[in-house]
Specification:
Blueprint: H1 2-23, H2 32-36, E1 40-43, E2 47-51, E3 60-65, E4 69-74, E5 79-84, E6 87-92, E7 96-97, H3 118-121
C-alpha cells in the first residue's frame, strides 16, 4: 500500500513539473523573409493598443500611433495578427487600413491586367 501511494505521489509530482513547461509559450525562429514580405497596414486612429491575444481581455504589449505601419501576419474580421518587436501580437482590425494600390486595366485584351512597375506598388 505504501509503495502504491509513493508511486502515485511521484507521478503527481512529475506532472506538476511538466504542466507549466507545456503551458509556457514556445519561442521559435521566424524566417526574416516571411516578416519582410508581410503586407503593411496603416493605423487609422490616434493610438492603437497592441495586445498579447485577440481580445480586449489580453494584456497590452504596447501602442502604435496614427499613420504608423504594422506588418500583418494574419488579417481577421475582428482582430489582426501582427509582428511587433520580434513576436506576434494582435490589434483590432477596425483601426488599420491597407494602402490602396492603383491597378491599370488593359482594355485591349479582355480579362488582362497591365503590370505595374515595382516602384508604383511600394
Amino acid at each position: 500500500m505504501k509503495k502504491t501511494i509513493a508511486l502515485v505521489l511521484g507521478i503527481v509530482m512529475l506532472l506538476a513539473l511538466a504542466v507549466p513547461a507545456l503551458a509556457a509559450p514556445i519561442k521559435g525562429k521566424v524566417y526574416a523573409d516571411y516578416i519582410q514580405d508581410a503586407p503593411e497596414a496603416v493605423v487609422n486612429c490616434r493610438s492603437l493598443n497592441v495586445r498579447a491575444g485577440a481580445g480586449t481581455s489580453y494584456d497590452i504589449l504596447g501602442v502604435v500611433r496614427r499613420d504608423e505601419t504594422v506588418k500583418v501576419i494574419e488579417y481577421g474580421c475582428d482582430w489582426t495578427k501582427i509582428w511587433f518587436y520580434d513576436s506576434y501580437a494582435y490589434v483590432s482590425s477596425r483601426y488599420i487600413d491597407f494602402p490602396v494600390v492603383e491597378v491599370v486595366v488593359d482594355n485591349t485584351i479582355p480579362g488582362k491586367v497591365a503590370k505595374l512597375p515595382a516602384a508604383a506598388t511600394n
